[in-house]
Amino acid sequence: MNEQQIWERIAAVLIEEQKKPFGWWYTSFVNGVFLGGCIVEAQGPATALRQTHKLGINPGGETMTWEIVPDRVPPETYRNRLLTKAQIVEAFPGLAV
Fold it and tell me: Which residue from 13, 62, 87, 88 could staple onto 46, CB 3.0 to 4.6 Å apart?
């Protein structure tokens, strides 16, 4: 896949995700070492990643994103900011990080 095809695919995914309802998404960032994680409101993994850029909380690196089930969404104090490993453990009790 060339660069143009990658950007076209990203655009297509964003269009599809924007048809979905909003939910809370967790994204972790790694570049050989853990760089942090964040919890943002989005419509899917691509819109979650875009939101981290808009908020200025994306430190770069590789990402992994998943939707947080509604009854496990952490309090507002943990949302929309870059979290340390310790803060993620606090936000998600019982989660192996």
Answer: 13
Q: What is the pLDDT of residues 69-93, one digit of tens each?
A: 999 999 999 999 999 999 999 999 8
96 occurs within a structural domain: no
Domain coverage including residue 7: 3-91
Place of tokens 């909380």: 57
Distance CA 70, CA 72 (A): 5
Residues in the chain: 97
DSSP state of 15: H
Domains of the chain: total? 1
Contact 33, 85 (CB under 8 A): no
